Amino acid sequence: MIAIGMALDFVLEHQLFCEIWILSDSRSLIQYLVNWRDVSDRRGMNIFNKLRTLCITCVLHLQYIPSHANLKYNDIADSLAKKGTTMPQAYVEPLSYLELY
């Protein structure tokens, strides 16, 4: 979810108003975003406010992509994600108990 928030920040900052695809191999994350009416945590509301801003000028898509299924770009995405974990990280607010569970 942090990566989606950062990607939306990038789109807003650079005014890249176009068609946006959010692809994730986390089925629970996609379900979380689809069930936006039930979200009450701070991080989720922050993402939904960004999505609401973007949906005025963009077409937004949410897509579940199964992991480890020999899809064309899945291996590239996995290697980039692993590489990203070794890079210095920006400060992210600690999660509350409710956000963790």
Automatic annotation (TrEMBL):
One of its GO terms (molecular function) is nucleic acid binding. Residues 1-86 form the RNase H type-1 domain. It holds the Pfam family RNase_H. It comes from the Eukaryota. This is RNase H type-1 domain-containing protein. It comes from Araneus ventricosus (Orbweaver spider).
